[in-house]
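Tutorial handout. Part one gives the primary structure; part two gives the three-dimensional structure as tokens.
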Amino acid sequence: MSVSIRLRREGSLNNPYYKVVVADQRSPRDGKFIEIIGNYDPKKTGDNANIDLARVDYWVTNGAQPSDTVRSIIKKARKKVPADA
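Part two.
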């Protein structure tokens, strides 16, 4: 089973809201998933993403591949966290 970390669209028309999920690559975008590890609101300015970095590390070490957008969100979240935490 090939696993990916990607966005799942939520929200209404013209008001997108995404959840960061771990899912099988074969499942549809808004279909079945394994775990929710964060969220992302593109309409909000400033700090618009919230992600559990410990779960990201767990899934990446077990072979999950993040999508390009999720990779960017993870990179921004790692910059936000102090190095000693």
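Part three, for discussion. The chain is about 25% helix and 35% strand. The longest strand covers residues 3-12.
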